[in-house]
Amino acid sequence: MNKKTMLMKKYDISDLAAFLSSNEYVVGEGNGTFSEASDIRGRTTVTLDWISANNSSPIEYICNSPAHYIICPHLDPDSIPNEILRDKTLILTANPRLLFARIANALFVEQKHHTISSTAVIDADAKIGTNVHIGNFCHIGKAKIGDNTVIMDNCIVFNDVRIGKDVLIKPGAQLGLEGFGFVRDENNRFIAFPQLGSLEIENDVEIGPNTCIDKGALSVTKIRCGTKIGAFVKIAHNCEIGESCFIGAQVFIGGSTRIGDFNWISPGVKIRDQITIGSNSMCGLGSVVVKDIGDSELWMGSPARFIEKRKAIT
User: Fold this and answer.
1) SS3 letters for the chain?
2) 96: cis peptide before it, omega within 30°?
3) How far is it, in rounded angstroms, from Cα 288 to Cα 266?
4) Cα torsion angle, 44, 49, 52, 57, sign
5) Dist. CA 118–CA 192, nearest whole Å
6) Active site residue: 74, 113, 133, 237, which one?
7) Phi, psi (degrees; rounded to nearest 5) at 54
8) Distance from the first to the final alpha carbon of the chain
9) Distances (CA, A) of 195 to 38, 102, 152, 192, 238
10) Cystine design at 114: which of 133, 144, 221, 279 (Cβ 3.0–4.6 Å)?
């Protein structure tokens, strides 16, 4: 046993009770403990294991896994051999991946220490909530930052930015930049269009490293609650992104675009300015979107075209 293993905290079924809902239950008589999370190649007897809900042979998986604790899809208890139940503890749930994520995040992910770095430059008029972390070499302008928000190293938050609670901003992000807007004068030369708006980021948003989000020109750029944005994303001025959207790495979203709730924007997608996308739709990998997209639609290609309807959110 190596030093790392010796220092691991051990958990048993009593530690899982807080994570289980009324339709999740435990079977088996395993009396062991677990102390780690691992992928399928690194499983041991002390690994908290889980089975995909799409696995066609869950009993075979359970038999082959060395783990004593396994999160499983709902199974008929009569279909589970008694020798398994004598040796293993099975946690039955409708969504094993989700339950595993909740348990592993709580037990194994190192919790961030919320501090404000001495190297951060913060405007005297900035309003900082409680339990906020601001990392090394950040620059915070006249902004408002909500409770429990984490701003990692080398981020810039400009003036006129409002950030909600429990937001995670990863290194190098730039929030609230002036938008890239111009108008030509009588001599066909560019004159900057005034960028006088703001940026609002609601609660529980995640913004990936080196992502840039412009403030509105004369209005507001909005990122609504629960949305997750990947690395190297550009969101231009006056955009509105709905709730619980996924925006993959290297996405470009042109100005004044409206994206509804629960959308999936795959990595590398480019969306033309002033596009409207409904709710629960998906743009496939690398698509170039030049037309509006309705609710619950899959579009792919360059230029993107309608592929099929998606299952509606219930």
Assistant:
1) CCHHHHHCCCECHHHCHHHCCCCCEEEECCCCCECEECCHHHCCCCEEEECCCCCCCHHHHHHHCCCCEEEEECCCHHHCCHHHHHHCEEEEECCHHHHHHHHHHHHCCCCCCCCECCCCEECCCCEECCCCEECCCCEECCCEECCCCEECCCCEECCCEEECCCCEECCCCEEEECCCCEEECCCCCEEECCCCCEEEECCCCEECCCCEEECCCCCEEEECCCCEECCCCEECCCCEECCCCEECCCCEECCCCEECCCCEECCCCEECCCCEECCCCEECCCCEECCCECCCEEEEECCEEEEEECCCCC
2) no
3) 11
4) positive
5) 36
6) 237
7) -95, 0
8) 49
9) 48, 41, 26, 8, 10
10) 133
C-alpha distances (whole Å) from 68 to each of 45, 85, 101 are 6, 10, 18
Contact 274, 292 (CB under 8 A): no
d(CA 97, CA 51): 8
* Per-residue confidence in pLDDT tens, the chain, 314 aa: 343 444 578 998 889 888 998 889 888 877 788 999 988 888 899 999 999 999 999 999 998 999 999 999 998 878 888 888 888 899 999 999 999 999 999 999 887 778 999 999 999 999 999 999 999 999 999 999 999 999 999 999 999 999 999 999 999 999 999 988 899 999 999 999 989 999 999 999 999 999 999 999 999 999 999 999 999 999 999 999 999 999 999 999 999 999 999 999 999 999 999 999 999 999 999 999 999 999 999 999 999 999 999 987 76
- 237 has catalytic annotation: yes
Distance of CA 227 to the CA centre of its chain: 7
The structure tokens listed for 92 are 């039955």
In this structure, which amino acid lies at residue 229? Answer: I
